[in-house]
Design goal:
The complex is a heterodimer.
Chain A: H1 3-20, H2 28-37, H3 39-70, H4 77-94, H5 103-133, H6 142-163, E1 180-181, H7 191-194, H8 205-227, H9 229-239, H10 241-246, H11 251-277, E2 279-280, H12 284-299, H13 304-326, H14 330-344
Antiparallel strand pairs in A: 1-2
Helix pairs in contact in A: 2-3, 3-8, 3-11, 3-12, 3-13, 4-5, 4-6, 4-11, 4-12, 5-11, 8-9, 8-11, 9-11, 12-13, 12-14, 13-14
Chain B: H1 2-26, H2 30-46, H3 55-87, H4 95-119, H5 126-148, H6 153-175, H7 184-197, E1 198-199, E2 204-205, H8 208-230, H9 235-255, E3 261-262, H10 264-273, E4 281-283, E5 305-306, E6 310-311, H11 317-339, H12 342-352, H13 354-359, H14 364-390, H15 400-413, H16 418-451, H17 458-467, H18 474-488, H19 497-503, H20 517-522
Antiparallel strand pairs in B: 1-2, 3-4, 5-6
Helix pairs in contact in B: 1-2, 1-3, 2-3, 2-4, 2-5, 3-4, 6-11, 6-14, 6-15, 6-16, 7-8, 7-9, 7-14, 8-14, 11-14, 12-14, 15-16
Classes of the chains: A mainly alpha, B mainly alpha.
Amino acid sequence: MKRWQRILLYLAVAYVVLLLGPIAGFDLPRIVGAIAQSPEVLIQQLLVGLINGAIIAIIALGYTLVYGIIELINFAHGDLYMLGAFASLTVINLFGLEDGASLATAIVPMLLALVIAGLFCGGLNLLTERYAYRPLRNSSRLAPLISAIGVSFIFQNLGLFWGGLKSFIPGMGNNAAAPKTFPDLLPRTDLLQALGIQTSVAFTVKDLVVLVVAAVLMVGLHLFVQYTRPGKAMRATAQNPMAARIMGINVDQIIALTFVLGGILAGSAGLLVALYNNTVVFTMGFTAGLRAFTAAVLGGIGNIIGAMLGGVLIGVLSALSDQYLSSRWTNAWVFAVLVIILAFRPGGLLGENVQEKV
Amino acid sequence: MAERALKVLRLSIALGLIAALTVLVFGGWSSSVIGWLLGAGAGLMACQRQSIPSPKVGARLGLEAGLVLGGWILLALVLQGLVLRPAAGQPALALPQLLQYALLAPVITTVAATVTGAVQGLKQYRQIATWILLALILLIFPWIDQIARTNWIATVIQIQIFVMLALGLNIVVGYAGLLDLGYAAFFAIGAYTTGFLSSPQINLQWNFWIVIWIAAAVAALAGVILGAPTLRLRGDYLAIVTLGFGEIVPVLFRNLTDIQIYEPISKILGSILGRPEMAICLVGCDKPFNLTGGEAGINPIGRPYLPIVGTFQSSNYLPWYYLILLLVVFAVFMIGRLRNSRLGRAWTAIREDELAASAMGINLVKTKLLAFAMGATFSGFAGSFYAAYISAIFPSVFDFSVSVIILCMVILGGLGNMTGVILGGIIIMGADRLYLPQLALVLKGVLSTSVLPNVANPALKDFLATSVDPIQMRLLLFGLTLVVMMIVRPEGLVPDAMRQAELHSPEPDSVPVVEDPAVEARS
């Protein structure tokens, strides 16, 4: 294509977007007007996006870890995170905590919930790997993928079942499928106001806790993978399993470790989301999993930094879309952006363009 | 002799279990219908993979299989009539009635098995005679269903819709090897196209017989549109893009309820100059235009009309049954021809090795786009039929789980094999729509009359009453089936010969190709 043809094509595409965009909320004059009127809303939305993105990034790390090492899209990961949320709800319920319990009484149960949800999901993921994925390691690419979809269904049903346990766990409510309320435990004290900054942007302790925990998890994982012996073994296995085996790395163990790590991250994310949104429902795994998966692919699946970047990007994108485009179109916009980015960079943002092997 | 008896017994285990389960769950006349259907199947299976010298030998093989199957049915009948019914709070079957069922069902089973077995001995006419027999069974099924009052026909129509979808997806995934996780989108597009063109929604009420072709064409076009940006992507990235497309399409249909389009340049100018009236309105000026009806969907959608039959009614299943049967047969025929055409071979080549295929002069772009388009076409037909049949459509019918269920049919049955895919569709949809609801009913009866009165612990009682419900365990059963199936038989129930060779080739290790040239040189 000649240059002027290309420019003409881009202009035409831009015109069509401007023409049809308003149907899906992309109304440029209105958006510009709204931002000009109250820039603080923009900052607030960016903040919300950052926090949601951090949570998405934690889940996305689970996808990316597993993909990086055995090239499997672990469809069950989103539902594992949902089960993590249920596990933490159960722990909190066993302590009999209610809305607005003081931080002093809530801190131990919350830490315990973090540990238990992490261990639970890690263990579950380990079992899944052992019985649903490992027997399929030598079969075609499709077989483990389908198996993962099957596990995802099983997990979803487990969540539904768990939600119906009202006779044993008080917080599970009457309807198994209905959303469950998670007690509001984190204080909503506004930090900015406490610091004396006069602004309508709200940044509460709750936001801070989620952000800090997410950051700690991500940095911790990064350090683990970069500098510890098992982390190095993981990277070696991801690069070339056979060479890793020759070098004396127990590949099966490393893969199991990867699944445990992914599970711990999913469990923690489950607790964080439950604390942040105060509701838990058995279908939440699917949507979140989809977003996280999108984030992982966006960043270049298999790339840890990419997953974090992709997560934050998706979070910010959907928060902005919720505010300025239209919340009912957000899912469509997220995927549209994904398709566009992949059309130009088929390996994701940070993923390398893998040359086809002959 | 004992060896042969053992073989017959082993053969009949799967069919016998299905038959017994059916009779246990449905009871009554269903024994004769399922005996008829499975008896024919047993006769066919008994003579598979061997040459039958004469119809007599075939008939004897069929007779044996039929007798064993009849035994299963008899056993199940007695159990259902004398044990299960009282346990579920219904009166036990009276002896004359039980005798009636018990005499008829095994006889029908045996006769059906003998006839299909005999047909297998017809040497050069074997294949054509089997086809004729199958056609006969399919043609008279609704009548038998009516006589026996089993009321399976509505479900059978649904099964056929999904078989059609699975056949279409099989082109994309099975033949061309492109993993498509958003296939329900094409189903939705076919259905909504029909909805737009033959409903009062936008005041177009075209004839269904024209609309169904348009719907298929629109779906095919959508397949090309989806295919275009994905051409450069590798397997897993392709999966996510198709998944994304599958998520976008229902969002579109859910939300295209108030469309107002302004010419953008005039609008931006107008807002800069502070004169909003400058914007030129193109669509939906006085009132936003409602295209899809949102969550409520489009209702009613026009139904097909034929001179003798009249307008197809929802109460009368017969014309619908024959219409979808015709469509499925058409699809099977077309796909069979496609498979053996130049295009079909090109698809296989791409599936096996893309790089080699393109080196051999296959146009990758064209071939892949055609795979998407062809796959979408058949789901367009299915969607169009579905819309007319239900006479209404809602966006919630077309979500991710539908795509996955269709994918599972393809993989469970046998990727790339049409018989397998059809079987996969029948099994999954049959279990889901026919057996589970009825099983739930029976279990509920058993629980409330026999089990619950004996449970003392109130918490446990409460839990059992609400949680033991096969409908609620649907996902669990489905997921377990997938996982177990993948581990036991990753190539599906009826594997494609070529696929099976591929999956069972002795591979030294799962490790990918060695990349380092130095290592390569040393080895």
